[in-house]
From TrEMBL:
<dbReference type="InterPro" id="IPR015421">
    <property type="entry name" value="PyrdxlP-dep_Trfase_major"/>
</dbReference>
<keyword id="KW-0032">Aminotransferase</keyword>
<feature type="modified residue" description="N6-(pyridoxal phosphate)lysine">
    <location>
        <position position="192"/>
    </location>
</feature>
<keyword id="KW-0808">Transferase</keyword>
<dbReference type="InterPro" id="IPR024169">
    <property type="entry name" value="SP_NH2Trfase/AEP_transaminase"/>
</dbReference>
<comment type="similarity">
    <text>Belongs to the class-V pyridoxal-phosphate-dependent aminotransferase family.</text>
</comment>
<dbReference type="InterPro" id="IPR020578">
    <property type="entry name" value="Aminotrans_V_PyrdxlP_BS"/>
</dbReference>
<feature type="domain" description="Aminotransferase class V">
    <location>
        <begin position="11"/>
        <end position="326"/>
    </location>
</feature>
<dbReference type="InterPro" id="IPR000192">
    <property type="entry name" value="Aminotrans_V_dom"/>
</dbReference>
<feature type="binding site">
    <location>
        <position position="335"/>
    </location>
    <ligand>
        <name>substrate</name>
    </ligand>
</feature>
<dbReference type="InterPro" id="IPR015422">
    <property type="entry name" value="PyrdxlP-dep_Trfase_small"/>
</dbReference>
<dbReference type="GO" id="GO:0008453">
    <property type="term" value="F:alanine-glyoxylate transaminase activity"/>
</dbReference>
<protein>
    <submittedName>
        <fullName>Alanine--glyoxylate aminotransferase family protein</fullName>
    </submittedName>
</protein>
<dbReference type="GO" id="GO:0019265">
    <property type="term" value="P:glycine biosynthetic process, by transamination of glyoxylate"/>
</dbReference>
<dbReference type="GO" id="GO:0004760">
    <property type="term" value="F:L-serine-pyruvate transaminase activity"/>
</dbReference>
<dbReference type="InterPro" id="IPR015424">
    <property type="entry name" value="PyrdxlP-dep_Trfase"/>
</dbReference>
<keyword id="KW-0663">Pyridoxal phosphate</keyword>
Length: 382
C-alpha cells in the first residue's frame, strides 16, 4: 500500500500531519511583519525547550552544520580542545576540529561504551590551556547516552574551558536544562526531537561563550553567529531562511508546549524502556548497557540472524524503516529510533513486526509474543 511507510529511525523522524499542513502553506516574505511575528514566537518557544534565558539561534543547516557553527564561533586556530569520541558523530567532531586548525586531544571510548568522565577530569586538571570540551550527548550511531552532567562539572572546575555539546538526538528527548547546568554551547537539528523535516539547526549560546566569541578568530561568514544574534533581537534573520520550515517549526513547538517538558521526557524514557525490554525478551543483544542507553535510539547487535535481512524484511513486508550500523558496524547491527513524534502504538507495531520478521527469517531463540508482551508491560506500568 502506498504512503504507509513508518519511520523508526533516529532521523529524519515522523512528522505530524498538523506540521505537514502548516508547511504546505504558501510562503510569505521573510522580511514581512507577519514572518517577524513567527520568528518572535519561535524564539520564545526555543528558549523554553532549551530551558534557557539566553540566546537560541536558528541556522539553515543540518545538525552537523549547527555543531560546526557551535565550534568555529568560539575558538581560534591552535586552541587546545578535548573532543569525546565513542561513535560516528564524536569522530565527526574530531574531523571538524582538526579541519579548522584546532589542537585536538581525543578522549576515546569503544563504540557502545560511554565516555570516561574521569579521563576528562584528568585532562582538564593537567592542562589549564584547554579552551573547550566538545562532547556528544546522545551518540546516535550506537545508542549511548554520555554523562554530560559529570563531564560538565569537570569543565566548570577548570574555569576557562567552554563545554560545547552535540545534543542532536537528546534535545527534546531528555531533560537537558541548559541554564541550570551552565552549558555554554548546545547544538541540535530539526529532524530529530523537533518533529519537522531536516533543514534547521539550533544553537544555544551562554554569556561566557559570547565572551569567547569576541576573541575567536576562526574564519566564518554564513555561520557567524554574531550576525544571527543581532538579527534575532529584531525578530529577523541575517540571510534568507527556509520560510516553510519555520511554519512547521512554529506548529511543532506549539504541540510540544501543549504536551509539556516532563511528559515529553517521560514518553521518550517509556519508549526506550519498552524497546529494550522487547529486545531482551527476544534474546537480541543490546549494544549499549542499561546504564547508558539513549532515549532516542536503541541499537541491537543480533546473534544468529542477519541485521540487514531484518531491516530488509521489515521494510518490504511491513513498510517499517529501521536504521543500520555505521562504519565498521555496517551490516552488523540495526537501530530502532523512538524519537520525536512516536507514540506507544508505534512501539507496539514495530515490536510486533520485528517478531514476525524474526520468525520469517527462521530465528527461534524466543517464544512468539514474548517481545510484544514485554513492551506492553512497560507501557502499561508507566
Amino acid at each position: 500500500m502506498d504512503d504507509k511507510q513508518m519511520l523508526m529511525i533516529p532521523g529524519p523522524t515522523p512528522v505530524p500531519e498538523k506540521v505537514l499542513l502548516a508547511m504546505a502553506k504558501h510562503p510569505i516574505g521573510h522580511r514581512s511583519s507577519e514572518f517577524s511575528q513567527i520568528i518572535e514566537t519561535v524564539n520564545h518557544h526555543l528558549k523554553w525547550l532549551f530551558q534557557t534565558q539566553h540566546d537560541v539561534l536558528t541556522v539553515a543547516a543540518s545538525g552537523t552544520g549547527a555543531v560546526e557553527a557551535g565550534i568555529i564561533n568560539f575558538l581560534s586556530p591552535g586552541d587546545k580542545v578535548l573532543v569525546g569520541s565513542n561513535g560516528k558523530f564524536g569522530d565527526r567532531w574530531v574531523q571538524i576540529a582538526k579541519a579548522f586548525g584546532l589542537d585536538v586531544q581525543v578522549i576515546a571510548a569503544d563504540w557502545g561504551q560511554p565516555l570516561d568522565t574521569e579521563a576528562f577530569r584528568t585532562a582538564l586538571e593537567s592542562n589549564p590551556q584547554i579552551k573547550a570540551a566538545i562532547v556528544t550527548h546522545s551518540e546516535t550511531s550506537t545508542g549511548v547516552l554520555n554523562d554530560i552532567e559529570t563531564i560538565n562539572r569537570h569543565v566548570k572546575a577548570h574555569g576557562q574551558a567552554l563545554i560545547i555539546v552535540d545534543a542532536v538526538t537528546s534535545l527534546g528527548a531528555y531533560n537537558l536544562p541548559v541554564d541550570e547546568l551552565g552549558l555554554d554551547v548546545v547544538a541540535t537539528g530539526s529532524q530529530k526531537g523537533f518533529m519537522i523535516p531536516p533543514g534547521l539547526g539550533f544553537i544555544a549560546v551562554s554569556p561566557k561563550a559570547w565572551e569567547a566569541y569576541e576573541q575567536a578568530t576562526i574564519p566564518k561568514f554564513y555561520f557567524d553567529l554574531g550576525k544571527y544574534r543581532k538579527t534575532a533581537a529584531k525578530n529577523s534573520t541575517p540571510f534568507t531562511p527556509p520560510v516553510n520550515l519555520y511554519f512547521g517549526l512554529h506548529t511543532a513547538l506549539e504541540m510540544m508546549k501543549a504536551e509539556g517538558l516532563e511528559a515529553i521526557f517521560a514518553r521518550h524514557e517509556r519508549h526506550k524502556q519498552a524497546t529494550r525490554a522487547a529486545a531482551k525478551a527476544l534474546n537480541l543483544p543490546l549494544f549499549a548497557g542499561d546504564d547508558c542507553a539513549s532515549p532516542a535510539v536503541t541499537s541491537i547487535l543480533p546473534d544468529g540472524v542477519d541485521a540487514e535481512q531484518i531491516r530488509a524484511v521489515m521494510k518490504k513486508r511491513f513498510d517499517i524503516a529501521l536504521a543500520g550500523g555505521q562504519d565498521h558496524l555496517k551490516g552488523k547491527l540495526f537501530r530502532i529510533g523512538h524519537l520525536g513524534f512516536v507514540c506507544d502504538r508505534d512501539i507496539l507495531a514495530a515490536v510486533s513486526a520485528l517478531e514476525a520478521t524474526l520468525q520469517e527469517l527462521g530465528y527461534e531463540r524466543f517464544s512468539p509474543g514474548s517481545g510484544l508482551a514485554a513492551a506492553h508491560r512497560v507501557l502499561l506500568s508507566r
